[in-house]
Amino acid sequence: MNIKSKQILCIGEVLWDRLPTGAKPGGAPMNVALHLNAIGLDVTVASSVGNDQLGEELKQFLENSGVITDYIQSDANLPTSEVLVHLDENNNASYEICEPVAWDNICLTDALQEKAKQAGLMIYGSLASRNPETRNTLLTLLENDAVKLIDVNFRKPYDKQDVVELLLEKTDIIKLNDDELLVFAGWHNKAIDAEKELVKWFAAYYKVQMVCVTKGEKGALLYFDGDFYEHPGFKVTAVDTVGAGDAFLAGIVAALLQKKEPQEALAFACATGAFVASKAGATPKYDMEEIKRIMNP
User: Fold this and answer.
1) Mean pLDDT over residues 158-176, rounded?
2) In whole angstroms, what is the distance from residue 70 CA to residue 45 CA?
3) What is the pLDDT of residue 10?
4) What DSSP designation does 282 have?
5) Which residues pair with 43 in a beta bridge?
6) Contacts of 295 (CB under 8 A, 6+ apart)
7) pLDDT for 21-67, tens place per residue?
8) Number of CB atoms found within 10 A of residue 110's CB
9) What's the CA gap between 261 and 164, in Å, rounded?
10) Domain 7-287, CATH number (from 3.40.630.30, 3.40.50.2300, 3.40.1190.20, 3.10.120.10)
């Protein structure tokens, strides 16, 4: 897979997760960017916040974390996004997402288009495209020669087939979870019980180079160049699962950019996801030594 530069552009939602323990910065593209930045990679976030106190606090948090905020727009009419996070008895998260919010209106600017042209890798999700303004901006930005990676990230009711498949037409790499994989199978009436056969069909149907399927506490599976790689995951005591999938994605992107073998990349990604699941919120202070201890107890 030829990545023309090491510049990474993450596009989509930035927000405040309202957890039972308090408010934490969140949003999948921002979470991924924070982890990639902590690992030491060149990453930029493109999004929008409201012209309000919550937006200023979110930008300040990013700046304090070392992430450039030049491509985070300020919307005079729409508020900064807040998401209510509910945890079940196993600390698995479900989300109550308000709309419209600032990231529903990410505008296409000359500066953003130029940044997209410079990127070697573009990371985006399906949630931010729920409304046409941001969706049209994203679709225009994806018309370039960067490697494009989508994090499917279904959040009901924003999981419409026509929108999601429009985005998948533009991508090279797909990351999704095992439940989301079954949704795609249902859309196309594919009654395939064997997981690997289903992943093969999925990769062929959407014409992608790589598919990564996360399976919660059961680990993850990577399909790349016709070969499968698997990892059972690492056992940790979960505080909440918010952002664990985003950390996993950052881990696998970082490992692949660093030219690690797919199996090694998968192990590092699982450890990164486990680390975040063992902490409160989506973006705990990054600790490479603790991740190494998870991998080698």
Assistant:
1) 95
2) 8
3) 97
4) S
5) 8
6) 234, 267, 268, 271
7) 888 898 999 999 999 998 899 999 999 999 999 999 999 999 999 99
8) 7
9) 30
10) 3.40.1190.20
